[in-house]
Amino acid sequence: MIEAKLRSFVDQPSAGLLKIKKNLQEIKARAIFLDRDGVINKYPGDTKYVTSLKEFRFLPGAKKAIALLAKSGFKIFVISNQGGVNKGLFSADALAEITRKMLSDIEEAGGKVDGVYYCIHRQDENCSCRKPKAGLIHTAMTASPLDMKDSFFVGDTIRDIATAKSAGCKSILVFSGKEKAANSDKWEVRPDFTFDNLYKAAKFIHTFKEGQLK
Length: 214
Ligand SMILES: [Mg+2]
Ligand SMILES: [Zn+2]
Fold this sequence. Notes:
globular, 6 strands, binds magnesium ion, 6-stranded parallel beta sheet, binds zinc ion, 13% strand, Rossmann fold
């Protein structure tokens, strides 16, 4: 009897419940998309890769920055090109080992990452996920609906800024990796904001009020 009642409740939820469910679906999270090399960890150099765990070094303040962003209520995703895998320079297992250690160190510092998305393809494979294409961001969005226009992409290259533009989110260029402020006359796309490093960007995002820049 109780079972039958429960079943009818589940099968025919009240209009009120349906409305709550619909409203919950319409609340979209804001996200911070982080490039990895040159933003979270030390930039390995042009055309170079972090090929093993021992080459992975957090940049100063990066873990603290992610902890601050996690507290701000943003979903946090790492979006990174790692074409060295399909070039045969390091294995998918090595990449997974680096990722596991990165995530556990971030969590130990009070941070949290909701997803890590890599493109492991070479440029000549012409995939749909290699930045500046927005494929990895679209994959992150299928997992949770995101409010793109109030989300941020933080990267250290102009390719990251182009990725932000194609995804429709705000772009932040940090000078802790490849790109330097002195090159700004050569940038094909302009970042919305620039900061020295992820921690300074995180402090800005933390105090950024919704709608402030519309
Ligand atoms: Mg980078
Ligand atoms: Zn790809």
